Amino acid sequence: MMTRRDFLGTVSWSAFAIPAFAQWDFTQSKVQDIKFPEKNDPAYWSKLRKLFPMPEDQAFFNTGTLGAQPTVVMESTIEHIRKVATDIAEWDYKDDWISGYKPYRVIRGKLAELINATTDEIALTENATAGMNYISNGLELEPGDLVLGTDQEHTGGRSGWLVKQKRKKIVYRPIPVPKPAKDPQQVVDIFKRAMGKKVKVIAIPHIVGGNGTIIPIKAICAEAKKRGIFTVIDGAQALGQIAVDVKDLDCDAYYSSRHKWLLAPPGNGMLYVRQERMQDIWTTMASGNWDNHEDDGYRLTQRGTGNLALLIGLNTALDFHQQIGPERIYKRIKFLGDTLREGLKTIKKAQIFTPTHPEMSAGITSYSIKGLMEGRLVDELWRRKKIRIRGVRQSTHIYNSPQEIEDTLKIVRDLASE
Ligand SMILES: Cc1ncc(COP(=O)(O)O)c(C=O)c1O
After folding, report:
1. Ligand 1 and 114: CB distance under 6 A
2. CATH of 105-319, one of 3.40.50.720, 3.40.50.2020, 3.40.640.10, 3.40.50.1000
């Protein structure tokens, strides 16, 4: 629930440290002006597709890298960029035209609501990589302390620990996870075996970027908690793709991008830190609020001038997400992913690297065709039907359709029978 303090944002603690302009009103967005299809309309999803500016003859399946922005998100972002460039002389410093200084409690509150956290526990970052670095850099560890990852980390999930290993002599250990994993328990057992006395941190993805494996985070965090191990989860691929409830997962920290599955403009991320562990995290980027423990999320958010247009776009994307309904989105993503995997299973030469266990996969499917030259599948999908995947990874989102999946499978079948 938004309070007056959230709206004004000028908390007394920092009133002298920051410029006095009033904060942008994030309680509103242009989503309120859009006509969404009726929820029970049989043509709901095809009508929704029209709310995206992508040409209708193109099928975009690379949300794992960057989500496609709805038109309303793009326009609200551009509108502010244009305003700053054109009307800058009119800026009397009474309103908020830049980001980087204010606490942005309303927008942090919307993110908090989405993942079942409190506003104080949420920091805004540029991307997932920044969230990871705030933890790896900000957490005090001793030489010899062990940090466990997986052998399938994105470079953004791993590199902060490699810096710490070189600088502070901690030990970073990537644990091999089968590709594909058989079931959740198999992965839990692998991590349980690795949780020795020296392990101080587990830093693993919620969804593996490469092949879309949903890691059984809740069970791993429960085991880690028994042993006093700090858990930090890379949710770059999870937020907006599947339901995320940080209290249920019971992790200590969780970070994500918002420009992938949440469909915000690029350059948007977030970091959650459990309130009780906030005092363990030094900030990495210090500005006036560097020691503000009344609002720790603000402490980790404030980092100097940024582009407010990106937050305006994010706010619009969050309202867009809520307007459709998170559960409806996750169900659709999973349905399309399952449809693709089911179809691939019927093609003998198709090799699927994503787990087919129902709890371990959603919108990301990695696969290849035995014997086909690398890159050929990508080229043929684009050449024949303007279907855009990345490498061996195909990500399904609400702007994709069963027909696009059928088109994909037809081309895969053709190539497999060559
Ligand atoms: C699992 C995972 N972690 C981290 C990242 C890095 O995200 P960003 O570029 O937003 O920092 C990615 C990007 O693809 C990813 O897939």
Report:
1. no
2. 3.40.640.10
